[in-house]
Amino acid sequence: MSTINVPPPRGSLLQGTLDLLILRILALGSHHGHGIAMAIQARSGDTLLVDHGSLYPALQRLESRGWISGAWGISDNGRRARFYSLTAAGRRQFAVERGRWNRLVESIARVMEPNSTPEKA
Amino acid sequence: MFGRRSQRDFEDEIRAHLELETERLRAQGLSPQDAESVARRNFGNVGNVEDRFRDAQPFAGVQGFGRDLSHARRALLRTPGFLVTAVGTLALAIGAVAGMFNVVNTVLLQPLPFHNPDRLVAVAGSAPGSDLPERFDLGMEFYLHYKEHSTLIDGLCMVGAGTSTLRTDSRVERIPMAWPTNDLYPLLGLRPQLGRLPVPEDDDDVVLISDQLWSSWFGRDPSVIGKSYFVSDGMKQVIGVMPPEFRFPSDETMLWVSTPIRVEQVRPGQFGALVLARMKEGVTREQLALELTRLSQELPARFGGPPSYARLIEKHRAVVEPLLDRMVGRTARTSLWMLLGAVFIVLLIACANVANLFLVRAEGRGRDMAVRRALGASRAQLVRLQIAEALMVAVPAGVFAVFLSAVTLPLFLRAAPQGIPRLDAAAGLELATVAATFGLVLLAVLISGAVPALRAASPDLTSMRDGGRGTTGRRYWVRNMLVVGQTALALVLLICSALLVQSFQRLRNVDPGYETDDIYTFQFAPDQQHLTDGPAWGRLHVTFMEQLRALPGVTAVGLVNNIPLDEGTAAGRFLSDAMSDEGGGALLYQNFTAGDYFRVMGIELLQGRAFTDDEAFTPNNNVIVSRSVATRLWPNGSPLGQRIRRITGDNTAVPLTVVGVVEDVKQDDWRDAGEAVVYFPLTGPTPSSWRMSSPAYVLKSSRAETLQREVRELVRQIAPEAPVYREYTMEFLARRSTLELSFTMLTLGVMSALALILGAVGLYGVLSYVVAARTREIGVRMALGATPGSVRRQVVSQGTKVVLIGVVIGVAVALASTRFLGALLYEVKSLDPVVFALMSVMMIAIGMLASYMPARRASSVDPIVSLRSD
After folding, report:
1. What is the ipTM of this complex?
2. For chains A and B, what is the number of CB pairs under 8 angstroms?
3. What is the pLDDT of residues A64-108, one digit of tens each?
4. Which of A64, B234, B295, B785 is the most exposed place for a label (fewest CB within 10 A)?
């Protein structure tokens, strides 16, 4: 309940990370938009709340770049929904983005360490 | 995947998302309603997301604009009054500009239909300090000498023009014709569409005819080539038909008589033929003028002539002007450009009015706009919406304008003066005009749409708070500026047209030295065996005058060689006894007359007597002189009985005796001074004094308008071979002589009236709006004790202030621009202070009137009602 009523803080996702997260989720298998949002939330342990409003333009962006493709299908509970899956290009792009992300996280982590000099470590 | 997704598909997807989310929330235990609203809240602004999808599509801008257009169309159709006013105002103004542009383009901008027309020039002469006119046409000796010696030209020709008789087996008429030298055709680069060009062996025995004459007289029958007809003074053979575009020197010229010029014909000092030249590549008009001036100085040595001729040549400066300028003439050019400027000003004023209408409209929707802004409409979108509305108004206006000018232009041109080349061709709309119209539409959109658009875009969200009822005057400055501009432009037009009206009135009130009421004039050209000398010719006319006098209602009949306002008079040199032969004498105009000419025309006989009928067919040396001749030659004594000598071409002097003095007349143009004229009797000093050209008859009759048929019948009886022509009333000739000015004046008058009305409506609209918007404030004032009078004064003074600024700017602009009218003005200075003052006062008065009506409405505000209404 509380997760619902507390509005997700704006910009809680780093700029540009939504695309990466979408690619990551789709790398596991095809999903519809709502499923992607739920999957991100679940995998983050309910800490990352996806702004539903920005999800669909992002999907549209990725699709127009040819990284994902969408097709209408039927969801688990029998509803019509648009399912997205990674294309071959999307898969390559995901590899590139993941490498970039890991390097970024390592760099930031090194900066953030309390003792940045290796001698004292 | 590569196919574009439809907007609907995207919206479906979002709906599916919302359903999935609602379902999830319900599964968590929310009520259906709560689940749905929370799902929506979690999603955020659905419309915004959909807009982002739309804007991300290729051509989203165009699609968006299409949406704006259809939105604008719907919005405009909801307010038909606004739509009709705006479209109508713009259509009228754009149509007027399009029509005038068509005329200016056809007459002034399009090159003449000749080979390399930009290198064609007219060569004239000027002789500052002599008694010749400011600019005069040249004589044969100039043509011959220039042609042989100029190094800067590729060709030269000389053209005389006039009207003369053409007679076929079935038809006889006087038609406009020209007498060009044969080098005219290669010079202009035109060939006949049928037949051949003249060669030197043809001498002056051949003619070329125009396409129009070929149609109207010969039914386009090719066998006309090789036939001979009576032209001007003898039988001449038709050798060719010129193409339709060959209209030279005037549009009306129907026939060209081959006219070779031989050195032995030259009489130095006989001026009056158009000389044109083709300049060599890269030569400027100034260079050519210098060369020709230098060459002219060799003329007296080569051709001789009297001493006065040599003195004239010393002063002579060649004048070289573009051929088109010469053909159109200075006043016509000034008029056309000025009228184009005037209609353009009207268009600007109309645009300002439409901008104003848009502003009022936008103001009414200020709240709507503010809400849109608050809901996330971008500034660009609002501007786009305004521009879309302006386009929806201007484009139909442009289409109407094209129709409007296509229909009205021919009517307008029918009222235009004759003699402006290519003017009749301007009746058909050119492609360039239609293109220009759409340029004007864009201009109208820019002016009338941009101002409201920028205002709509201003981040003025506060107007939502106070409901668009601003109480400060600051917000009206845009509109005030529009009114200032309108006032200034309207005043410029008003001043220009007032100056023309003044000129016209002064011109119509000029005493030309003759009357124009109840006078009928005509000419006929008899060609009979017995008419071999002056006395025979004189008798014919004296007899015919008797017959005309017998017509019912005709009280007096006379004749004259060159009637004022229709034909110019030739000039000659005369010596009084007091003058030495070397002085060159005085340049005086000469005319011949018989019957009651002076009485019919109301030309006052000041001294002595008129000619008798006997003098018309008995060679004699008597002359009558006009007042200026008498004061110039005999300033102290009586002119009666004085002797003068006329110097002829071969430098001999013919002695003459003065028997009468009459008032001067203004021959061509009432703006000119009266001419100094020597009148000869019909037959002159010797039986062959005059080439037997046909005189103009004048009949005094209250039935001047209806005499034509009876006169023609009389002519048919005595000379069936003779064409009757130049049939006018003097009243008509007087009107015709001022037609250029009156036409310009009328058109400009209509334009400035339109400008004035539009300006006044603009001011009225702004003040009405201001009053409406300030009803509450005015109510408060009145509740606090302001009298209706003080409220009225306040509104009127607000309007007057705006108008005053406009008047100051308008006067400044007019001061700088009225001098372009110079060529059209008569006895009115282009900076006439009375006209400037009167028109400014009138403008202010109209401004106050336009302010008074809203002011009265303001003062009738009921404080209770106005306060309660909020």
Report:
1. 0.81
2. 67
3. 888 999 888 888 878 888 999 999 999 998 999 899 889 988 998
4. B785
